[in-house]
Structures are given as C-alpha cells and as structure tokens.
Amino acid sequence: MDTGTAIETHGLTKRFWKKTVVDGLELRVPAGSIFAFLGRNGAGKTTTIRMLFDLLDRTAGTARVLGLDCVKGAREIRRRVGYVAQNEDLYDWMTVERMIWFCKGFYPTWDDKLAADLRRRLELPPDTRIRTLSRGKQAQLALLLAMAYRPELLILDEPTAGLDVVVRREFLEGVIQLVQEEGRTIFFSTHLVHEVERVADWVGIMEEGKLIYCAPLEELKSGTRRLVCRFPAIPPAPARIPGLLHAEKLGKDLVLTVRDYNEQTLVAAHALKPESVEVEDLSLEDIFVAMVGKERV
Predict the structure, then answer these.
(1) Are strands 153-157 and 185-190 parallel, antiparallel or unpaired?
(2) What's the burial of 177, exposed, middle or buried (CB within 10 Å: 0-12/13-18/19+)?
(3) Which of 108, 118, 249, 254 has the fewest CB atoms within 10 Å distance of its CB?
C-alpha cells in the first residue's frame, strides 16, 4: 500500500451462512480525498466498514487502513481513525461537557482547544444532558468526539440517517469544512445520493455486495450522459449502444443512459435512425439510479 492511499482492500469478502454480503471487494481510497461510499440499504456498506475496524471477521481477502492490516493493526487503526457510526450510542445520562471529558482520557492526542472550538461552532450546550439533545445535535456531538483527537482519517457510516433535510445539509457541509481545514481524508457511506454531490470528490458505488464503480466524481459525471432519441413511431430496441446502462421507452422517445460517452456513442444512437437526438447532463442521483435500478441493461 502506498502513502497516497488511506484505505485499500483486495478480495474482501463477508458471508453470513450462504448469503454473501460483501463480494470480493477491490477498493482504493486516495489519501486526502472526500470519498462517498454509495449504495442502497443492504448493499454491504456498513459490513465493509465494520470489517475495516475489525468489528466483524472477514471471510476472505485483505484490508488495510493507513497502511495497517485491519486485524493485526486494529488497535493502532482505532487510535488514528475517527469513526462515527449510524445512530451512535452515547451515554445519554451524561452532559455534553462530561462526555467530552470522559472520551478525552482514551486519546493521548486529544486537543482540548479543538474540542472547545468544535463545541462552540456546533453550538453544543455544555451543561445539557445528552438525552435531551435533538437527533441532529447528538450526531454533531459524536462528530466532535471523533475529531477532537485529530484523526488522520474520518469514517462516517450513514452519519445523517434520521436527520431532516436542513440538518443533513448543515451537518455534511460542516464536516467537510472542518476536516478540509485539517487536510484529512473523509470516507462516508450513505444511500442519500443527492447529499453527496456538493461535498465529495471521489465516489464508490456498491450494489449487492459488489463495487460496481469507483472513480473521481467529475470523471463519473463527465462520462455519463442521457440521450433522448425521438422517433416518428414506436422506438426500436437499443441494440449495440456502447456503455448502455439503462434504456426506457416513453411514447415515441427512446431514453438511453450511457457510460463512457464519446463520438461513437452518438454514432450508434444515430444508427437507430431517430428524427433527433438530444444529449443531456445528469445529476449524480440520476446516474446512481441508472446504475443500480432494477431496469439496468
């Protein structure tokens, strides 16, 4: 593993009895990136993260985090990596201030000044018991606890689950701002694709335990297009369209979503003899649906 990689897996597999939840995962997360790990619920994202922290035994394959084997180096990984799990369990009878004091004792690199600054920026009242905080404020407290010891890598597993749309946006953008100031790596899993586009620079897409795409976000968006082919009558079947992800007939229109769009794609579309072809850009959410939807071609 080179120094430019924060997370790397080879053939990482997890089976529960006869069900394969993570299937031969080949993943590389560049150091310094904001990496969105996307997939529907049940795609294998949380299982992957739990294996990275040695919270779950792997069936096969290898995984390294910050150059360390995730089993042999598990203790060191936990010291150097911040982790916020979905619905993080906190001692809800404690106050915010007491919880910060309690967690400080586990980390020699804890930064009191950073913790105090984060508490103020996140507007967390020190004397308030955690059980009385909103779900959003509890998530922000979990983030503070994961960042105050200045981890080299921050892993967030569905960090905005259960939050309303405004709080989700504020939370994600706040995380990115805070971590970018430190030049750290962020790896976060989510199924809320529309939240990702503003903040991520790399994307990995999981479907049924397999990684079906991994690349810079701009590369994915610039290479994926929607072609609206208009016909005088019922459209033909979309045979021999390179990179075809999804095809749908809408009246006299044949709507094609394609990867690796180039001149040859357009030539193949015109070979179907439509009256016209319109090429459209797509949002990340449109691309995600085309890749993992049931009607994939």
Answers:
(1) parallel
(2) exposed
(3) 108
The pTM of the full predicted model, rounded to 2 decimals, is 0.85
Q: How far apart are CA 64 and CA 210, in angstroms?
A: 18
Q: Strand 19-30 to strand 276-280: parallel, antiparallel, or no bridges (unpaired)?
A: unpaired
CA dihedral 160→139→33→217, nearest 10 degrees, is 10
Tokens 């994939």 — which residue?
296
Higher pLDDT, 121 or 225: 225
Q: What angle do CA 191, 196, 197 make, to 5 degrees?
A: 135
- Domain(s) labelled CATH 3.40.50.300 in the chain stretch across 5-219
As a whole number of angstroms, the distance between CA 150 and CA 170 comes to: 21
- Percent of the chain at pLDDT exceeding 90: 62
Of 17-21, 155-159, 279-283, give the lowest mean pLDDT range.
Answer: 155-159
pLDDT at 4: 87
Domain 5-219 is classified in which CATH homologous superfamily? Answer: P-loop containing nucleotide triphosphate hydrolases (3.40.50.300)
Q: Length of the chain in residues, anyone?
A: 297
Task: Quickly state the pLDDT bin for 180 (edges 50, 70, 90).
Answer: low
The tens digit of pLDDT for each residue in 65-79 reads 999 999 999 999 988
In the chain, DSSP assigns E strands to 5-16, 19-30, 34-39, 60-65, 68-69, 81-84, 153-157, 185-190, 202-207, 210-216, 225-230, 244-250, 253-258, 276-280
